[in-house]
Design goal:
The chain is 28% helix and 28% strand. By secondary structure, it is α/β, with parallel strands linked by helices. The protein folds into four domains: 1-46, no CATH class; 52-98 and 224-252, Immunoglobulin-like (Sandwich); 109-215, Immunoglobulin-like (Sandwich), CATH 2.60.40; 259-575, Alpha-Beta Barrel (TIM Barrel). The strands form six sheets. Strands 17, 18, 19, 20, 21 and 22 form a six-stranded parallel beta sheet that branches. Strand 2 (71-76) and strand 3 (81-86) form a beta hairpin. Helix 14 packs across helix 15 (543-552). The relative contact order is 0.09. Bound molecules: zinc ion. Zinc ion binds at residues 366, 435, 456, 529. Zinc ion is lined by residues 366, 435, 456, 529.
Length: 577
């Protein structure tokens, strides 16, 4: 490497003759020429312009897959941005830190600093921020990659921090902006995505008249900080020491993988029972929606598993015993896969299982008919580990009216129904009102003191289906601190035709806009309880697509984490003590 570097430096002064060119004539043996050319090329690429070379890879922490177009920012020890780059299709990046190129003098100015205006330069208008530590004349120039002047302005300034507006002018591409003061000059790069004929350099604004910015007295040669970031990933920072080259390999965790992801409704139990246990959660399937390997792909940490007893298939006197039998089957599944999952009755168990990379299962009995009008059956469900009950399925009970019932708007809970609600409150059992009629929901809200959930429903204002929630219901659930698991079932999302992932996002958006925040929103897929799925949400592997869509829609990472799981965890923690 030492010899190669000596050859490369030939290239530097003015680029009179390429170092490769110098060696071509004396060489007769082609094979040797080819080898030497290759060596020269790679070495010269690395040490271009006398810079220090930094390179590395950015990969997905859980999958090991390369992350394309990840942003790399490299800062010196004092926090000044030296350069930026992005990863290629293989997730690789490489930069030569232009020690010479970044300033004309080969060292950073002592009288001012120039901040990189990343990521703003991608917009048609941006600001160029800089700081001067003494008063004097400051000249700002912008020129293109050919070195042609695009715009220039001068200012007489006191010490302080400033920002100059830049409004796109000239052609699209890389532009350089320089700040000069007292014979010192500093240049940085910006990218103008579109050509523009706007005003170029414009107003100067004073950001601060206090200079507390610690200017770098000299270029920090011993270490630097590399930040890797990407849209759907959490950023990561590495500090590396380097002399001539340094390597920075990143394993970024996506926003989705970092978040606790809990889905509020799944019917895979039905698939297991329908196939007479041929369908096992442990195996990866190409049919149906749910299994452990696919949960892993989907980054799912928690699932409410439904115990649903068809009120028509089974006779009413066997609802409870059948539900208990189904619960045993679910427990057997969890037990058989205890390295991958566990059933939980408390919120902190979700956290601890998640730390062990296991999926937390929460059990819901979907339909109050399963208690067969007896409070002791409700108590037995609780004792067996059930922590959620959907008050009705599509069938009404003697004590609660379902949303599908023609009496739904007028008839609500009976006195026994209210007793069920109060018992659930006192036990610490979450009340689920998906499938429940409007008057019954009103009665539940008036009777319960706890936050309640609608585990798998949409917004009625977007799709007027009886299974969806009215604005009043959404507001009431939100006000109580409850959550709505937005359902993926196409007929609840759109009135006709195939639904897409975007339609789920529309329902989320609607609820967020109605309530004014995202605190009552969760996901309630209803996977394996639905015969069709939206395009883009075909099975449990697709949950990351929701995260990506929400981020693209401008949801904050905090709101995304709430929707993915934190909102439900709040309810779980509050109700199930
Ligand atoms: Zn359902």
């Amino acid at each position: 490497m030492i010899e190669d570097r000596a050859l490369c430096t030939l290239e530097k002064p003015g680029g009179a003759k390429s170092p490769i060119g110098l060696f071509i004539a004396p060489l007769v043996r082609l094979r040797r020429l080819a080898l030497l050319t290759l060596t020269l090329l790679s070495a010269c690429q690395l040490l271009q312009a006398g810079g220090r070379t930094m390179f590395g890879t950015v990969r997905d922490r859980h999958r090991g897959t390369p992350i394309t177009s990840a942003g790399i920012q490299i800062f010196d020890r004092s926090g000044i941005l030296l350069t930026t780059t992005t990863t290629n299709a293989q997730g690789q990046w490489q930069v030569s830190i232009p020690v010479v190129g970044i300033t004309d003098q080969g060292e950073l100015p002592r009288t001012f600093s120039l901040e990189q205006n990343y990521p703003n330069p991608f917009n048609p208008s941006t600001k160029i921020p800089f700081t001067v530590v003494k008063s004097g004349n400051v000249r700002i120039t912008v020129y293109n990659i050919l070195g042609q002047l695009v715009d220039a302005k001068e200012y007489d300034l006191q010490a302080g921090s400033y920002a100059v507006d830049w409004k796109a002018t000239g052609s699209a591409g890389v532009l350089f902006y320089s700040v000069e003061m007292g014979g010192e000059r500093l240049t940085k790069k910006m990218v103008q995505l579109d050509r523009g004929n706007s005003t170029g350099l414009g107003n100067l604004s004073v950001m601060s008249s206090h200079v507390n910015y610690n200017l770098s007295p000299e270029f920090a040669t011993d270490s630097c900080r590399i930040i890797a970031s990407s849209f759907v990933y959490e950023p990561d920072t590495l500090t590396v020491a380097f002399v001539d080259s340094a390597r920075g390999d990143f394993m970024l965790e996506s926003v989705h993988d970092r978040a606790l992801v809990i889905d509020l409704h799944n019917d895979v139990m039905e698939v297991i029972l329908r196939t007479n246990y041929a369908y096992q959660l442990a195996d990866r399937h190409t049919t149906d929606h749910t299994d452990i390997p696919r949960y892993r792909d989907g980054g799912v940490d928690g699932q409410i598993f439904s115990i649903w007893i068809s009120p028509t298939t089974y006779s009413s006197s066997t609802y409870f015993s059948t539900a208990m039998k189904f619960l045993d089957t679910l427990k057997a599944q969890a037990n058989r896969n205890k390295n991958d999952m566990g059933l939980v009755v408390r919120a902190d168990s979700v956290d601890s299982l998640s730390r062990q990379k296991k999926i937390a299962g929460i059990v819901v009995v979907e339909g109050g008919h399963c208690i067969e009008d007896r409070l002791e059956n409700l108590l037995a469900f609780y004792a067996a580990g059930v922590r959620v009950m959907t008050i009705t399925w599509n069938n009404s009970t003697s004590w609660a009216v379902s949303a599908q019932d023609s009496r739904a708007d007028n008839v609500g809970l009976s006195e026994f129904g209210k007793q069920v609600i109060r018992t659930m409150d006192s036990l610490g059992m979450i009340i689920d009102i998906s499938h429940v009629g409007r008057k019954s929901v009103d009665d539940i809200l008036a009777t319960s003191k706890n936050p309640i959930i609608a585990s798998h429903s949409g917004a009625y204002a977007l799709r007027n289906h009886y299974r969806n929630l009215t604005d009043t219901q959404i507001r009431a659930i939100a006000q109580r601190g409850g959550v709505i698991g937005v359902v993926f079932y196409p007929p609840f999302l759109v009135s006709s035709g195939q639904a897409r992932l975007d339609n789920v996002i529309q329902h989320i958006d609607y609820i967020k806009n109605l309530v004014g925040n995202a605190d009552c929103i969760s996901l309630g897929s209803d996977f394996d309880g639905i015969e069709v799925t939206p395009t883009g949400l075909e099975n449990v592997t697709k949950f990351p697509a929701i995260t990506e869509a929400l981020l693209q829609r401008g949801y904050t990472r905090q709101d995304v984490r709430k929707i993915l799981g934190e909102n439900f965890m709040r309810v779980f923690r509050t109700v199930c003590k």
